[in-house]
Design brief:
single chain; 5-stranded parallel β-sheet; 305 residues; 12 helices; alpha/beta
Length: 305
């Protein structure tokens, strides 16, 4: 009986060591991929649209600065608020001058993005603010399963991103060209997503802007290109949300709004699908971003307004 107890304890000890080692290795790769282990000048925050629109390496080489691209599939404004708090609460944020926040006309639509996107944060459940965020979203059983067993925290997408981080691979693999015939048919049949203005999401977005401003950091609200047919789908509401972003930019010298649709959104060969750019589109958008960035003075943190 005593021998069985000793063997059981030894097994549990070995399991914990291996499990924690797996977790450390995967998290290290994720930190490299998202740039959470960098003293960056620029932090990109958004979902897959911004992820595929911006070439991190090209920006770093052209602007001679470190860049963190913390973009995750399916994250809404609530998730992004947590992502920003996560980076700004780390010791790596001391050099941060600019947060580039991806926006689009669907940002305040309270559907379409995954309601389970909090699961993407399981790798960081040991961090205080992320732990609190997950505890509010997850069931008690799921929370403790992921809290206690590291190897349960990772989806296939997160494992892939970790491997890409270890190999320093940020390439856009969305190779292909938008099917405009199908898109036009979906628009005619009203099957495409619509623009909404959910008051709860707007409040979280504005809370996020105020939080960043309180940290004395510049904010660039960037609209990366979306296929023009989709932009033209609801012209009145589209203009309304454009005006909203412009008003936010005019409300503070710490906020700017850059619309990168002109000269790109009607070139459908640059898109993989209506909201994601292919590698050629990514390169052109990144070059436009670099040109705009060089035209502004981001050499120091501005005064708190």
């Amino acid at each position: 009986m005593k021998r069985k107890a000793i063997l059981l304890l030894a097994f549990l000890f070995l399991f914990i060591i291996i499990d924690r080692g797996i977790g450390w290795s995967i998290n290290k790769g994720l930190s490299k991929y998202y740039g959470l282990d960098l003293h960056s000048e620029i932090l990109f925050i958004g979902h897959s649209q911004l992820m595929l629109a911006i070439d991190k390496k090209l920006i770093e080489d052209s602007l001679n600065c470190k860049v963190s691209k913390y973009c995750r599939e399916g994250v809404d404004v609530v998730d992004r608020y947590q992502m920003i708090k996560q980076y700004l609460s780390s010791s790596y944020s001391d050099s941060l001058k600019v947060i580039v926040y991806g926006v689009d006309q669907f940002i305040f639509k309270n559907s379409g993005l995954s309601e389970n996107s909090y699961m993407n944060f399981y790798p960081y459940i040991d961090e205080l603010n992320i732990d609190s965020f997950i505890r509010k979203k997850a069931s008690t059983t799921d929370y403790w399963e992921h809290k206690l067993i590291c190897s349960t925290r990772y989806s296939d997408a997160l494992l892939n991103n970790s491997l890409r981080g270890w190999f320093c691979n940020w390439d856009n693999y969305k190779i292909g060209i938008l099917d405009t015939i199908t898109l036009r048919k979906q628009i005619i049949e009203k099957q495409e997503r619509t623009i909404e203005f959910d008051e709860g999401l707007i409040r979280v977005f504005e809370k996020t802007l105020n939080y960043i401003k309180s940290k004395n950091i510049k904010i660039i609200l960037v609209q990366t290109p979306i296929a023009k047919m989709l932009n033209d789908y609801e012209p009145g509401l589209y203009q309304k949300i454009q005006n909203y972003f412009k008003e936010k930019a005019n409300s503070s010298p710490l906020i700017e709004y850059w619309d990168m649709n002109p000269n790109i959104s009607d070139k459908y060969d640059l898109f993989f699908d209506p909201i994601h750019l292919n590698p050629k589109g990514q390169q052109l958008t990144t070059e436009s971003f670099i040109h705009l960035y060089k035209d502004h003075d981001f050499s120091h943190r501005p005064s708190i307004q």
